[in-house]
Amino acid sequence: MPALKPTQFAAEVIWLGRVVSGGEGIRSEVIEGAFASFDGFDGEVHGGATRPSCVRTKAQHPKGTTIRNVRQLSILSEEQVAQTAAEMGIAQIDPTWLGASLIVRGIPDFTHVPPSSRLQAPSGATLVIDMENRPCQFPAKEIEKEEAGFGKLYLPAARGRRGVTAWVEREGDIRIGDKMTLHVPDQPVWAHLEEARAE
């Protein structure tokens, strides 16, 4: 039996972007399509096979340690971005403000898809979901530039809706309109999860 099983769920790619090197903040630019290489999207500031460790891994590594880059791409769902905007009381959130790589639709509670799940495009390009991407101040700053007074509302509204980070397992093209099949690990939830979190 395969350890990863395809599901009936597919993530339709409705938006693509990249955060370009040398730009200010986290704002991304719109792209029509991308070749997902083992380093991520070409020209993406978060690309590369390795990256310096940051605050997210401070319990494991001194800041700046070279580690494997499992944060090449930022993927969010259209549904959860809309929910975040509604809770903030604004009409919409432009994906460029979020530093997004992909916006997808069609997978419920997308932010909580199990880590190590795969999204596979028709080209064969396969993205491995690392984990939930927690809200941070960078998108809040971009929102504040466009919707003055609302940036401070982003973090609480985006909690549990910020999407996931991912890395490229198999190279290939990703295009607007692609239906990326969701594959999930054939593994039950660890029985000691709550006990471990209490430590």
Summarize the structure.
The protein has 199 residues and is an alpha+beta fold. The chain contains four helices and 13 strands.
Task: Explain how this protein is built.
The chain is globular. Strands 1-8-7-11-10-9-13 form a 7-stranded mixed barrel. Strands 4-3-12 form a 3-stranded antiparallel β-sheet, with no helix packed on it. Strands 5-6 form a two-stranded antiparallel sheet. With 199 residues, it is α+β, with helices and mostly antiparallel strands.
Task: List the topology elements.
Blueprint: E1 4-18, E2 29-30, E3 33-37, E4 40-41, E5 50-52, E6 66-68, E7 73-77, H1 78-88, E8 102-105, E9 118-120, E10 126-132, H2 137-146, H3 154-158, E11 164-170, E12 172-175, E13 179-185, H4 193-197
Parallel strand pairs: 7-8
Antiparallel strand pairs: 1-2, 1-8, 1-13, 3-4, 3-12, 5-6, 7-11, 9-10, 9-13, 10-11
Unreliable stretches, pLDDT < 50, 5 or more residues? none
In the CATH hierarchy, the third-tier topology is known as M1 Pyruvate Kinase, Domain 3
Give the helices and strands as they follow along the chain.
EEEEEEEHEEEHHEEEH
How far from one another are the termini?
A: 35 Å
Strand order of the largest sheet: 1-8-7-11-10-9-13
Annotation keywords:
three-stranded antiparallel sheet, single chain, 199 residues, 4 helices, alpha+beta, seven-stranded mixed β-barrel, globular, M1 Pyruvate Kinase, Domain 3
